[in-house]
Amino acid sequence: xxxxxxxxxAHNGAEYPNLLKDRLPENVRFTVATTIEDSLAQYDNQQVxxxxxxxxxxxLDNEPPIKxxxxxxAGVTPLIDHPFKDYVLTGVxxxxxxxxxxxxxxxxxxxxxxxxxxxxxxxxxxWKAQGSGRLEGKTMGVLGTGSIGVELAKAMTGLGVKVVGYxxxxxxxxxxxxxxxxxxxxxxxxxxxxxxxxxxxxESTTNLINYDALQSMQESALLINVGRGNLIDDDALCAALExxxxxxxxLDVFKExxxxxxxxxxxxxxxxxxxxxxxxxxxxxxxxxxxTNLKRYVSGDELLYRVDFDKxx
Length: 313
Fold this sequence. Notes:
The chain is of the alpha/beta class and about 325 residues long. It folds into 2 domains: about 110 residues, Rossmann fold; about 180 residues, Rossmann fold. The chain has a 7-stranded parallel β-sheet with strand order 8-7-6-9-10-11-12. Strand 10, helix 10 and strand 11 form a beta-alpha-beta unit. The radius of gyration is 22 Å and the shape is elongated. It starts with a strand and ends in a 14-residue tail after the last helix.
């Protein structure tokens, strides 16, 4: 085979050499950069990138001779927004579902078991034998029925939770019991005890959860967003939490990251914030996706998880 050189551009790029060692085809070499600055300085017209989308976007500013970029993130917004698109972009699937399921389930159980309330009672030496909420009989509404949403739905169904989904097409997806679309969003929200956001960053998903949507939710509902920060109207959410329109919210993603210190979300009532850690891009997982696609690339086969620039995912 012809010699092939690819470029790794990721903050944790130094972990990839050990993971790729002895597993690359003959005559394949690579270079590693761990900052945007190093990426720009060290990139040497390699046609293949294994990269964070923001690092890759910086490289694309010079319209390089790239043929394929393997993203290390599930979200590829920096590359969708970039005007240069003369290459194949592949995403990551079947990697983050387990992490996100654990995150979502953990916060739901924290909510239902009233962990915070019981801890506060402990601090005050209060013995209050009040029952907890249950998962059984509850309905989870998942905004996004892709691979992550499916894995979450399977896990929650196994715990006795009814799971319904929301997507653009309205097409049925297993194991969701029912699928809703934008025209039936209100009904979807009214049904759901837990509303989970896993949608991509698109014009059609921006502020989908706005004032009217929050008014449609149950007062006992818990909102969890692990997809993209554009989904929720922050001001509307703060108002809904302050007025007890919904029981609580958990946000892992935001319109601006890091979340500014001045954001009202920090002090919003019944809101828990985590710094975009619901599903991490661990090199050991990403390397497997890349190696599978690299084999297909060398053989001239179609790459897995190809991103449609027009759709944005």
